[in-house]
Design goal:
Elements lengths: L11 E2 H8 L3 H10 L6 E2 L5 E3 L1 H16 L4 H38 L1
Helix pairs in contact: 1-2, 3-4
């Protein structure tokens, strides 16, 4: 799971987010109702519009729940107790994964 955030784009629809995470929009809506760190705006039609900060928080939730196997309650506790520390580690992991992909691409070109 990796979503590229556009510097020009301020909001992402729930459909775009669900597609990027390869999950149903209903899961994104559920996580929105469960996790206080998600604060999507709603447009005039009531559709959720996620900010880049929301996307980063969704990546963190996805990482904890889907990749590390946390329960929702466990993820909530983990986020409340060490959100900054967890986010820093998460960002380091993501950057390292990007570097690994780039190095693999270079290796394959040789």
């Amino acid at each position: 799971m990796h979503i590229e955030l556009s510097k020009d784009k301020r909001y992402y629809s729930i459909g775009e987010v669900a597609k990027a995470f390869n999950v149903n929009a209903s899961l994104i809506r559920f996580w929105d109702s469960e996790f206080d760190i998600l604060k999507p705006k709603k447009n005039a039609k009531g559709n959720r519009m996620f900010t880049p900060e929301d996307i980063t928080n969704l990546q963190l939730i996805y990482h904890l729940v889907k990749e590390r196997g946390f329960t929702l309650e466990g993820a909530k506790i983990h986020l409340k107790e060490g959100q900054k520390k967890t986010l820093d580690k998460f960002e380091i992991i993501r950057k390292l994964e990007t570097i690994k992909t780039q190095l693999t691409d270079i290796k394959n070109e040789l």
